[in-house]
Amino acid sequence: MLENFNRDVSAATRAADQGPVVITDRGEPAYVVLSIQEYREQQGSGESLVDRLSMEDDLDIDFDPVEMGVPLVNPWYHDAASGSSLT
């Protein structure tokens, strides 16, 4: 469809007024054409993902971890003398 898009950009932009248009390259999705309105709606508040996921409110959360009785394994630690990787 990339070849078709190059030949008739105006048809793709008209179709984008009805919803997202997926442009394929060799049969695989490669691009999406959106109307500016749809793009702005997708952007949401304009905040970054980090801002949206951050917990700005100082929440008072009580957390009591449960003892599982299982030894912890540190994948970055290896005791060459014993061959153990348990911490």
Structure in a nutshell:
The chain has helices at residues 2-7, 9-16, 36-43, 49-53; strands at 21-25, 28-33.
The arrangement of helices and strands along the chain is: HHEEHH
The parts where pLDDT drops under 50 for at least 5 residues are none
Q: What structural class results from the helix and strand content? A: alpha+beta
Number of strands: 2
Beta-strand portion reads: 5-15%
Adjacency order of strands in the biggest sheet: 1-2
Classify the helix fraction into a percent range.
Answer: 25-40%
Number of helices: 4
Distance between the termini: 56 Å
Radius of gyration: 26 Å
Summarize the main sheet.
2 strands, antiparallel
Outline type = elongated
Overall pLDDT metric: 75
Structure write-up:
- With 87 residues, this protein is an alpha+beta fold.
- It has four helices and two strands.
- A two-stranded antiparallel sheet has the order 1-2.
- Strand 1 (21-25) and strand 2 (28-33) form a beta hairpin.
- It starts with a helix and ends in a 34-residue tail after the last helix.
Features:
87 residues, alpha+beta, two-stranded antiparallel ribbon, 31% helix, 13% strand
Write the layout of secondary structure elements.
Blueprint (H helix, E strand, L loop, with lengths): L1 H6 L1 H8 L4 E5 L2 E6 L2 H8 L5 H5 L34
Antiparallel strand pairs: 1-2
